[in-house]
Design goal:
This protein is mostly beta strands. It has helices spanning 4-11, 31-37, 91-97, 159-172; strands at residues 19-21, 28-30, 41-44, 49-53, 56-60, 66-69, 72-76, 81-83, 86-90, 118-124, 127-134, 144-150, 180-187, 197-201, 204-207, 214-218, 225-230, 241-245, 248-252. Strands 1-7-6-5-4-3 form a 6-stranded mixed sheet. The longest helix has 14 residues, at 159-172. The two termini are 18 Å apart.
Length: 256
């Protein structure tokens, strides 16, 4: 269930892309000490930590770079770390919130080791998919992301979204829904997403194009948009599929 709150906010608000916060300092700070120094509070359970100070609230997740600041998803360049129930925050978190820093308690870490081009996200039980980040060559920031989830799992997330997707697909196709993926693209302001999205499985290759297997609820692919992708019948969602988004790729099994 990690990150579910923020991701649901993203899903139903045009998927505002998470911000990458960078720092050259890999030091780590005890979150209780951070809270005390800044007249705030920090509480945590097995699944998440909550940092409160002034009128702000921040949700953090163990061993994850994803956090939620006042309802907005943010992706740090290094994860929140939990060691024997002690929650540690990287310098980027303190910089983002403009908090005073207590004494560092950990040696610098290699930040780049935590940066991944994709992750599996479970929005609700039985509703999960792959979230791919696009970072142009030479850039230190993600400019775009795309989330893909099989149509069969939308009903576990939202019945209205399931019906909207079905209606959209039936508008252009007759017969069975087939092998359909719900998708959502998000952009940083001024960001340019890759124009080509390709699916590969064995000898099957499929390049997505507008109105030729890709149908948008809003926007025009690859600009910020939400919609559905209908894959050719040769694809098997129960076997690994390689998703290629420009130079970024992920191998993912959509249905287990």
């Amino acid at each position: 269930m990690k990150r579910a709150i923020g991701l649901l906010c993203l899903l139903f608000s045009s998927w505002a892309l998470s911000t990458n916060l960078l720092s050259n300092n890999g030091a780590m700070y005890d979150l209780i000490a951070v809270a005390n120094l800044n007249q705030g509070s920090f509480t945590a359970d097995e699944y998440r930590g909550v940092l409160r100070f002034s009128s702000r609230i921040v949700y953090l997740f163990p061993n994850s770079p994803e956090i939620i600041i006042d309802g907005q998803d943010v992706r740090l360049n290094a994860p929140i770390t939990v060691q024997k129930k002690q929650w540690l925050a990287p310098t980027a978190l303190l910089e983002a919130l403009q908090l005073k820093a207590p004494e560092a308690i950990a040696a610098p870490v290699e930040i780049s080791a935590f940066e991944l081009p994709w992750e599996e996200l479970e929005l609700k039980p039985k509703a999960k998919g792959v979230h791919i980040f696009y970072r142009p060559e030479g850039s230190s920031l993600d400019e775009a992301s795309i989330f893909l989830m099989p149509f069969e799992q939308i009903k576990y997330l939202d019945k209205d979204l399931e019906q909207t997707t079905k209606t959209l697909i039936n508008k252009f196709n007759t017969g069975k829904i087939g092998k359909v993926l719900y998708f959502s693209v998000a952009l940083e302001p001024g960001g340019l997403p890759p124009a080509e999205l390709e699916f590969i499985q064995g000898a099957s290759r499929y390049i997505v194009e507008n109105n030729a297997g890709l149908y948008s609820f809003t926007g025009t692919f690859p600009e910020t948009s939400i919609g559905a992708i209908k894959l050719p019948s040769t694809f098997n969602l129960k076997q690994p599929i390689r998703i290629v988004w420009n130079e970024v790729s992920a191998d993912y099994v959509f249905l287990n």
